Amino acid sequence: MEIEIIESRFIAGTSLQGTICATYDDLAFCLGDPRTEGLDNSTAEWNMQIRTDDGDYHTVTLYDWGQYTTPTKAHHWSVGAFDMDGFNALFDFLDRNGALGFDVTLGNNRLDHRGGE
Length: 117
Fold this sequence. Notes:
Blueprint: E1 2-5, E2 15-22, H1 24-31, E3 45-51, E4 57-63, E5 75-81, H2 84-96, E6 103-106, E7 109-112
Antiparallel strand pairs: 1-3, 2-5, 2-6, 3-4, 4-5, 6-7
């Protein structure tokens, strides 16, 4: 699985697919430094294209919606994508790299780290 962080391009049209609990440091280690300037309603944002093992590409945003300061401890980061396949691609990438924390929220369903209810 490959990931390309899109640093200078604004991604529009994604919608919230769920949240992933992780620390800022773990995300920055896996994804590099986030975008921090020119953001609305968040203080840190990663825009990325993820190519999965089957060759599909997914546009994904990861951001701290509604925060006034960037969270440093475990936080439920919002995941925007065009569909759940994008969310799943990011989840798999972060899971493979040890960045996931305690639980994941998909819509109104809270799941533990490995997807059990």
